[in-house]
Specification:
The protein has helices at residues 2-24, 34-52, 74-87, 102-129, 132-143, 146-153, 158-174, 178-193, 203-209, 211-228, 236-251, 271-279, 282-290, 295-301, 304-323, 337-353, 357-377, 392-396, 408-418, 457-462, 467-472, and strands spanning 257-259, 262-264, 424-428, 442-444, 452-456, 479-483, 486-493. By secondary structure, the protein is of the alpha/beta class. The protein folds into 2 domains: 2-377, no CATH class; 408-493. The strands form 2 sheets. A 5-stranded mixed β-sheet has the order 4-3-5-7-6. Strand 1 (257-259) and strand 2 (262-264) form a beta hairpin. Helix 9 (203-209) packs antiparallel against helix 15 (304-323). The longest helix has 28 residues, at 102-129.
Length: 495
């Protein structure tokens, strides 16, 4: 008995460590995404307001802006804000340990929570289907998924949204006692809604699965939201409806992106299908393709009713984003990834069980080599990953917007090494705001008068008719910033 508990504890520690190491290793190497700076400011202010009891700060929250699609994201902001408060350098408090730059301190909280979630995912899957192989395999594949690694190394809300929704659905579908099921599913749904409004879509399968439980879950969710959505005044039900309607309206407004080899403000319906097919690693993708043909596996592990409602949620979520005019990348449907790996684990274990021992050992080595290779090769910018169905990221760049807002870090460091006397630079692209985190060089967009000019590849892609883009197409760059075959930026010298 003691030996079994020891092995169980070691397994949990192993899963946590395997998840944590690639998430925190050289966090500063992962290029800063511009949205991180926005959330960094908000998180610091939110935690300080909460700590000092200044709830008036939230009465004019960023989510009230009438013309911006803004996630509320309070849970993520407050958690990372606490991490910044206690770990970051140059904070206005004597409580800080002064260890990390502020953006690294914020990222550490994201990395740690997501690593803990892998352990929780394992425990939940083990409880649901009573299978160590499926739970371990699903947890490992999810943990080392390149998109998940990327979102766990950035201070963005998408990974937390996936966590809250998975916990809410698990509580609603698999806890048999109604009272704890309603309370926990409502609480996690509230945290999900206060992260991003699309969490509300989970109410559809909740209603279909158990109308009676839904009658109690909905008002419980409303009560939790009333207390946890800070800064709200007036009739609360209307506040939720108004916020949802405004976000839906704004999501239909045109937004320039690049897909199918052309600039567009409304990518086709299958945009997110393409993202899933090309951004998931081939192993889980193949496992999902095989699963529908093995009905016995699904019926043995999940009831038909449960299976229908889980799959229904996945379809509804992808469909909702597919119908939206704004289509902005795989991270916006990352919510479905935990369930993808839940089903992929079931499929792979079912196949391996039928194999001989030698093949099981061989497949284990293939699995380790495959995911170790992905983790090492795409470090530190995992969001650049595309699988072989897209012919890798280099070929994908011809059809999809790859490397958006990347290229500043290595470009500015190249200029500092090559030209130590450099004082200023012109930067064309959305990553201009992060350069002060890398260098004291003065940054502008004055490409006509600055000697050194950095042009992001995504800027070239999205604005082909821009005067500067047209001008530099006729010039030879002094350096091209490439990563995994993807061009991120180009540097020019005006003579």
């Amino acid at each position: 008995m003691k030996k079994g508990r020891l092995l169980y504890s070691l397994l949990i520690i192993f899963l946590f460590v395997v998840s944590l190491v690639p998430r925190i290793y050289k966090l500063q190497s992962t290029e800063i995404y511009p949205d991180e700076i926005t959330w960094l400011v908000r998180s610091r202010e939110s935690f300080l307001a909460l700590k000092t009891g200044n709830l008036n700060y939230f009465k004019n929250g960023w989510w009230k802006r009438p013309n911006d699609t803004e996630a509320i994201n309070l849970p993520t902001a407050i958690i990372s804000g606490a991490s910044v408060f206690f770990l970051a350098k140059d904070q206005p408090t004597h409580y800080s340990l002064n260890i990390f730059p502020d953006y690294i301190a914020a990222r550490i909280a994201i990395a740690a929570i997501n690593s803990l979630f892998i352990v929780v995912f394992f425990l939940i899957v083990k409880k649901i289907i009573n299978s160590y192989p499926i739970a371990v395999l699903g947890a490992l594949m999810l943990s080392l998924d390149p998109t998940y690694l990327a979102l766990s190394r950035w201070f963005l809300p998408d990974s937390f949204l996936a966590i809250w929704i998975f916990l809410s659905m698990s509580s609603y579908f698999f806890i048999k006692k109604n009272l704890p099921s309603v309370i926990l599913s409502s609480l996690f749904l509230t945290l999900a809604f206060l992260t991003k409004p699309t969490a509300i879509l989970v109410l559809i399968p909740f209603l279909l699965f158990s109308p009676l439980k839904f009658v109690f879950t909905l008002p419980t969710f409303a009560v939790f939201t009333q207390f946890l959505w800070l800064g709200q005044e007036g009739y609360f039900g209307w506040k939720i409806i108004e916020y949802l309607l405004r976000q839906f309206r704004l999501a239909q407004e045109p937004f320039t992106t690049f897909f199918n080899g052309k600039v567009t403000t409304n990518p086709p319906f299958y945009y997110y299908i393409y993202q899933l097919i090309t951004r998931l690693p081939l192993l889980p993708l193949a496992a999902l393709a095989i699963l529908p043909f093995n009905l016995k596996i699904k019926q043995k592990i999940l009831s038909k009713k449960l299976l229908i409602n889980i799959v229904l949620f996945l379809l509804i979520y992808v469909l909702a984003f597919s119908l939206s005019t704004k289509k902005l990348g795989i991270r916006y449907i990352f919510v479905i990834f935990p369930w993808i790996y839940f089903f992929a684990g079931i499929s792979i274990v079912a196949i391996v069980k039928k194999s001989k021992l030698i093949y099981k050992i061989l497949l284990s080595f293939v699995f380790i080599a495959y995911y170790a290779g992905l983790t090492i090769y795409f470090f530190p910018n995992y969001y650049l990953y595309y699988n072989l169905l897209a012919n890798g990221p280099f070929k994908a760049q011809k059809y999809d917007l790859v490397g958006l807002c990347m290229g500043a870090k290595d470009s500015i460091h190249f200029l500092e090494r090559r030209y130590p006397e450099i004082k200023s630079v012109a930067y064309l692209g959305c990553n201009k705001t992060v350069i002060p985190y890398y260098s004291s060089i003065k940054v502008s967009t004055d490409w006509k008068n600055e000697k050194y000019v950095i042009v992001e590849e995504s800027f070239r892609t999205l604005t082909p008719d821009n005067e500067a883009v047209g001008y530099y197409k006729t010039k030879s760059p002094i350096w091209i910033n490439c990563s995994k075959g993807i061009i991120l930026s180009r540097i020019y010298i005006n003579k």
